[in-house]
């Protein structure tokens, strides 16, 4: 079977990094390009980090594009306290020599979706949804051509990780999230409800290091840095590995359990701005616009990630 064509839209981010590396290590996936967005850190760092990761993976031919430098309406909020001042603190990765593509990420997303056969490209957003929403606003004709969007974002039973109500990716650009969730595109989301069940343990990180490869060693160094924050916050053995859930779902959906639900984004209340309101119990007749993941076979998930990174 031909590999599935994906676009990874991302704000790396150590967990974004593991997702990108896992995608590169998966022959079932054809990464058409990587689009960077402002999120965990500002855009100049996220696009730089994306290129560093391509070179780490031995994939310098990958097209990397810079997208939006700020959310659609609100001011940018970043997360250096989680990811460090570079966004990718931990390893000392060299500056990339591969070029940044000259085209704006939003235009490239539009061009790609208008050129590839309709229904053959899946979008994988791992950060705020600004680039995706801007592409939908600039060229609405792309909307019916998207095969599916599988994203990391939101939280319902688990609440938020940036405010009591909102998860980081949705909180940073709730208006963009509103555009995407109201678009009618087939959507799957990996919210905190599932990523908080994908908790790393020491063995996973040590297994990565023991691969002895540049990817394995750098990944272990990234996760060592990233874990220190989550362990302090969550008081658990290991922090959640959020973004790789998206790639794992594409590769092995059977690892996950979820439910088709109506999901809306709060863009009105300052108190719960960016909350993802999931009609889990079917209390309304709103359209069920999203498959919401809420459980994962964590052992199978980490084994899959390790196996894919080991191929690089
Ligand atoms: C999300 O926020 C970012 O900090 C992570 O990379 C992930 O995409 C988790 O809330
Ligand atoms: Ca991310």
- What is the topology, as strand order, of the major beta sheet? 3-2-1-4-5-6-10-7
Poorly predicted segments: none
| Order of H and E elements | EHEHEHHEHEHHEHHHHEEEEH
Write down the CATH class.
Answer: Alpha Beta
Overall shape: globular
Could you give a quick summary of the protein structure above?
The protein starts with a strand and ends with a helix. The chain has a single domain, classed as Ribonucleoside hydrolase-like (Inosine-uridine Nucleoside N-ribohydrolase, Chain A, Alpha-Beta Complex), CATH 3.90.245. The model has no long low-confidence stretch (mean pLDDT 96).
Fold and architecture overview:
This protein has one domain: Ribonucleoside hydrolase-like (Inosine-uridine Nucleoside N-ribohydrolase, Chain A, Alpha-Beta Complex), CATH 3.90.245. The longest helix has 21 residues. 55% of the residues are buried. 38% of the residues lie in helices and 17% in strands. It contains 12 helices and 10 strands. With 312 residues, it is α/β, with parallel strands linked by helices. The strands form 2 sheets. Strands 3-2-1-4-5-6-10-7 form an 8-stranded mixed beta sheet, sandwiched between helices. Strand 4, helix 5 and strand 5 form a beta-alpha-beta unit. The two termini are 21 Å apart. Bound molecules: beta-D-ribofuranose (BDR) and calcium ion (CA). The site of beta-D-ribofuranose (BDR) has 15 residues, from helix 1 and helix 6. Beta-D-ribofuranose (BDR) binds next to helix 1 and helix 6.
